[in-house]
């Protein structure tokens, strides 16, 4: 079944772009990374797998990203969390397995905390929990911090050659959603897939998340050959296996 782009009208006047594939449950919800959209490589790969397995899948773009309305410089972690909750509440039915990549892993955790009755499990790919503080602010040189305070925005380089637009507003607002000081009261099963060679979200960050999660059904799969992208064919097969395990 085709999953053409549709739009969810929000009460604030913004629209959330999404693709929804019909299928059997439990449904899957894809949450993208910081610079990614619902049409990124891993998202499309999961969509292909869902089509083969006749599984329901929802993908969407955060506000200010991809085909959704809004300005990227206005984006906040809390705003993107609200996007995820609106997508789950209004576009899905029944239990869902949330599949979050990088930043999407943090948002998946926040969604699971807010909607425990709807979330059956979490599959987290190189989860960038507390991204804005631990992986951004804490590692920025002093002169960059000063520039960010002064100018309100800065483009942070990544290991893939891209840049991420970091705003002072996002850093400050993100402090409302920090989790790693734990315990993180997520009780559903959690599977973490992490690359040993990841230079954007180090494997030690995934271990810290593992330690912070309060639930017992939590597993970390560390792949020595993988980097942050986790998009090699064998990594995608690992992803599909984890989704199937929790479904």
From TrEMBL:
<comment type="function">
    <text>Acts as an acyl-protein thioesterase that hydrolyzes fatty acids from acylated residues in proteins. Regulates the mitochondrial S-depalmitoylation of the nucleophilic active site residue of peroxiredoxin-5/PRDX5, a key antioxidant protein, therefore modulating mitochondrial antioxidant ability. Also catalyzes the deglucuronidation of mycophenolic acid acyl-glucuronide, an active metabolite of the immunosuppressant drug mycophenolate.</text>
</comment>
<dbReference type="InterPro" id="IPR000073">
    <property type="entry name" value="AB_hydrolase_1"/>
</dbReference>
<dbReference type="InterPro" id="IPR052382">
    <property type="entry name" value="ABHD10_acyl-thioesterase"/>
</dbReference>
<protein>
    <recommendedName>
        <fullName>Palmitoyl-protein thioesterase ABHD10, mitochondrial</fullName>
        <ecNumber>3.1.1.93</ecNumber>
        <ecNumber>3.1.2.22</ecNumber>
    </recommendedName>
</protein>
<keyword id="KW-0809">Transit peptide</keyword>
<dbReference type="GO" id="GO:0008474">
    <property type="term" value="F:palmitoyl-(protein) hydrolase activity"/>
</dbReference>
<dbReference type="InterPro" id="IPR029058">
    <property type="entry name" value="AB_hydrolase_fold"/>
</dbReference>
<feature type="domain" description="Serine aminopeptidase S33">
    <location>
        <begin position="51"/>
        <end position="135"/>
    </location>
</feature>
<dbReference type="InterPro" id="IPR022742">
    <property type="entry name" value="Hydrolase_4"/>
</dbReference>
<dbReference type="GO" id="GO:0102390">
    <property type="term" value="F:mycophenolic acid acyl-glucuronide esterase activity"/>
</dbReference>
<dbReference type="Pfam" id="PF12146">
    <property type="entry name" value="Hydrolase_4"/>
</dbReference>
<keyword id="KW-0378">Hydrolase</keyword>
